[in-house]
Specification:
By secondary structure, the chain is of the alpha/beta class. The chain has twelve helices and ten strands. The longest helix has 18 residues.
């Protein structure tokens, strides 16, 4: 590694520690190992992670069946650093490495001192991978920006998860009420005893943010598709008109260091177009859904939709079933969708 690249590594590690993370080249005993069926091998340059308490590790172990000692860290930000002149294919592989890792956020750090125009080339590589493979949260960053961050003061506190996340709701109509009620009580108590924020249901804010951003970039309001019979055209008035609202039955939320959001706000000040390009939403990074649960007493397309929500919005998703037979049916859904849609972070728990 060249001295210039090594210097960038040192800056990235130092910043991560000041933001309140454990910054390292590799984190063993990671919760993300659950996402890859035991094949978790960190291949990114730097990880910013938060440690789990013993109680939190035991809670995750209880619903996954994995030993608690293997679940001691949760990487939040995966960072690839290119301090010289990488090819576009190299940067595409950087983005793929971050996606495979499964962190909540990724940074692709490049250096304009190494190559003029590489920041925009990195942004194009990210846009291209996102266009082909999905909504990956990877942000291009120029290495020179870290010089301005060296002496900046960052909050050392954890963010406060909005109280609106902590609300309860009656079981959905398709659930078996006695089993559902007892299972919810068990999961709720398990999460709270571990010091996690229990959201019931959990509604990811990313959908409303995406709607607001889509409206902001348009010169005229968003419209519904025309009514097939009347041909009438009407204006969309809320996020639920644009994207289908998602409610995960129950989730365990883990607050993130407040410094992360401050850092992302700083990036947005340097380059406001990061938000316009759909890769930077600082307000979404005050917490992470460590585990989400969908209670499914029967299989079918409704259950399949629940598993998709878990895969999209939670670090670990658990499809909870009341019997071995219904559990097998949920496993069949996972096998059907994993080859094309991933769902590697979702598993099944039978709780009778």
């Amino acid at each position: 590694m060249r001295p210039s690249t090594q210097a960038i590594h040192q800056q990235v590690v130092a910043l991560g520690e000041r933001l309140g993370f454990i910054a390292t080249r590799e984190v063993s005993n990671s919760v993300l190992s659950l996402r890859l069926d035991g094949a978790y091998i960190p291949r990114v340059d730097v990880l910013w992670s938060i440690p789990l308490t013993t109680a939190q590790a035991k809670a995750v172990a209880a619903v996954t069946g994995e030993p608690a000692e293997r679940l001691q860290h949760l990487p939040i930000v995966g960072i690839e650093i290119e301090g010289t002149t990488p090819t576009t294919k190299t940067m595409a592989a950087d983005v793929a490495n971050i996606a495979a890792l499964g962190t909540r956020l990724g940074l692709l750090v490049v250096s304009e001192l190494g190559e003029k125009g590489i920041y925009r080339r990195a942004a194009r590589a990210i846009r291209t991978i996102r266009r082909s493979f999905g909504d990956l949260a990877v942000v291009p960053v120029d290495a020179s920006w870290f010089d301005d961050l060296a002496n900046r003061k960052w909050s050392s506190a954890k963010t406060k998860t909005p109280l609106r996340a902590e609300r309860t709701k009656a079981p959905a109509g398709g659930e078996t009420l006695p089993w559902s009620s007892a299972t919810r009580d068990h999961l709720r108590d398990l999460g709270r005893q571990a010091g996690l924020v229990v959201a019931e249901p959990y509604t990811p804010e990313v959908l409303s943010v995406a709607y607001d951003e889509e409206c902001a970039r348009r010169s005229e309001p968003l419209h519904h598709l025309r009514d097939p019979l009347t041909r009438e055209r009407s204006v969309m008035k809320k996020a639920g008109d644009f994207l289908t609202a998602c409610e995960v039955d129950l989730a365990w939320l883990l607050p993130l260091p407040a410094g992360l959001r401050e850092f992302l706000n700083y990036l947005g000040e340097i380059d406001p177009d990061l938000r316009e390009h759909g890769v930077l939403y600082p307000e979404l990074h005050d917490h992470v859904a460590l585990a989400g649960f969908e209670l499914e007493s029967s299989s079918g397309k409704h259950a399949a939709g629940g598993l998709l929500n878990l895969a999209a919005y939670c670090v670990i998703g658990i499809g909870v079933s009341p019997s071995a037979q219904s559990g097998k049916e949920l496993e069949q859904i996972l096998r059907r969708y994993r080859p094309t849609l991933g769902l590697r972070n979702v598993r099944v728990l039978v709780h009778e």
